[in-house]
Amino acid sequence: MSELSEKLEQIRREIEGKIASYDSSKALYEFRKSMLDNREGRISLLMRTLKDLPKEERPAAGKTINDLKEWALARFEETDRKLHHLEIALREAAERVDVTEPAVSVRTGHLHPITLVTNELIDVFQGMGFTVYEGREIENDYYNFTALNTPKDHPARDMQDTFYVSGDFLLRTQTSAGQIHVMENSRPPIKILSPGKVFRSDDDATHSPMFSQMEGLVVDKGISLCDLQGMLDTFSEKIFGEGVKTRLRPSYFPFTEPSVEVDVSCFACGGKGCKLCKGTGWIEVLGAGIVNRHVLENCGIDPDVYSGLAFGMGIERIAMLKYGINNIKALFESDVRFAGQFRD
Ligand code: PHE
């Protein structure tokens, strides 16, 4: 009996001594099994030695073993609960999300200022009933010049230094070439807008060998300069701001007659005169005019029945004015620090 008590005491001390050192419920479970497993646990094995004791000692001995078993069960349960709580706390700490932490910013792509301005222009003119016609970048001499009333040897050809591709083919110097395709392929009423790249052998702070233009063409009965001015007034207010006015100045283009240069009142100083408008109060933004009757004739449209207006603007120029960019090259250098400033 005392031998049994000693063994029980030893087990109790061993459990008590070790139990606090466990830091995972899994490891504790192994320890618990070594003591309490029904077949191999040390306490269970002691139970099985009861039959070797004299009959009268068995009930008391059985009780002491049972007491120890219950005590051990309670200790293991309690410790297991503590470890479990600890494990949950640790996991929660590790998985904790601080919703107040500033978000990691994700860099997204965005549109180039030229695309932004192009879209804006399309939007404005679509509101006036224009549809978009996409021209071609390689044209032949006929579409870029001759059909536009600019025959060979015409001095106006010198206005635009041309890149020739081969023979009769060239990189279009103006989106006006698209006018001819449209008028050849459709009958009035015509109301198209044609954005696209054009090419000229020209290179300085305000000129680039490749740039973008936006062409507009309206052909119908009774079209006059008044229609042009009305459309351009809407355009200038929408693009440069409320109260911006337009003014038409006489000019010359072979494919329009009369031809005008269109100025907008300076949106920086309101027309008083400043650095942007070079003290004049006006800024030149586009060329326009009434479609020359020869051009209509070249496309099989009767100029005695129909008349048209056309305008063409440089998109880079509009973007530079709108955003205060002083070198056209910034628009083509792909510097993300520059391009990133034009998120809409
Ligand atoms: N094509 C002319 C240019 O590039 C602009 C223009 C277009 C003028 C339409 C009049 C009418 O300078």
Brief summary:
This protein is of the alpha+beta class and 344 residues long. Helix content is 40%, strand content 20%.
Structure characterization notes:
- With 344 residues, the protein is of the alpha+beta class.
- 40% of the residues lie in helices and 20% in strands.
- It has a 7-stranded mixed sheet, with helices on both faces. A 3-stranded antiparallel sheet has the order 2-4-3.
- Helix 1 (2-19) runs parallel beside helix 4, helix 2 (25-36) packs antiparallel against helix 4 and helix 5 (113-126) crosses helix 8 (225-240).
- The chain is rod-shaped and about 135 Å long.
- It binds phenylalanine.
- Phenylalanine (PHE) binds next to strand 9 and strand 10.
Write the layout of secondary structure elements.
Layout: H1 2-19, H2 25-36, H3 42-49, H4 58-95, H5 113-126, E1 131-132, E2 138-140, H6 141-144, E3 164-166, E4 169-171, H7 177-185, E5 190-199, E6 210-220, H8 225-240, E7 246-253, E8 256-265, E9 282-291, H9 293-298, E10 307-314, H10 315-323, H11 336-339
Parallel strand pairs: 1-5
Antiparallel strand pairs: 2-4, 3-4, 5-6, 6-10, 7-8, 8-9, 9-10
Bound molecules: phenylalanine (PHE).
Phenylalanine binds next to β9 and β10.
